[in-house]
Design goal:
Elements: E1 9-12, H1 13-18, H2 24-33, E2 37-40, H3 44-55, H4 64-75, E3 80-82, H5 92-104, E4 111-113
Parallel strand pairs: 1-2, 3-4
Helix pairs in contact: 3-4
Length: 124
């Protein structure tokens, strides 16, 4: 869908660091998609929002990178996050909390989905 121009692929610099330990097939896919992606650098606004998530104990400081992913997507005005991180991001309770902190901080709520939810009904 990214190659077809249906979605803009935006990732954080945190993802780039995480990919250093990824399996080779993931690294290869990342390399293939680089021409389609924008990489977000961490900035003060994202760090402030991340701090809000941590202060609200949405995730513990051990998982601060997960909070930073959400903060970067929010402050960069991404429409949504697509993730397989079911423990700290794609989690019903946490999604509501991320959106509540966003709204309290002057940002819109963020929508979070699994990759499967992004498929069209006729796609497999």
């Amino acid at each position: 869908m990214v190659r077809a121009g249906r979605f803009q692929l935006i990732i954080s610099s945190v993802v780039v660091l995480e990919l250093k330990n990824a399996p080779i097939q993931v690294k290869n896919l990342f390399a293939e998609l680089q021409e389609f992606m924008t990489i977000l650098d961490t900035d003060a606004a994202a760090l402030a929002l991340q701090r809000g998530y941590l202060d609200a104990e949405i995730v513990s400081p051990k998982w601060a990178d997960d909070a930073l992913h959400v903060a970067l997507a929010t402050t960069s005005q991404c429409d949504l996050i697509v993730s397989w991180n079911f423990k700290h991001i794609v989690n019903y309770r946490r999604m509501k909390l991320y959106s509540a902190i966003n709204e309290a901080s002057g940002y819109p709520p963020i929508e979070i989905y699994t990759p499967e939810e992004m498929l069209d009904d006729d796609e497999e």
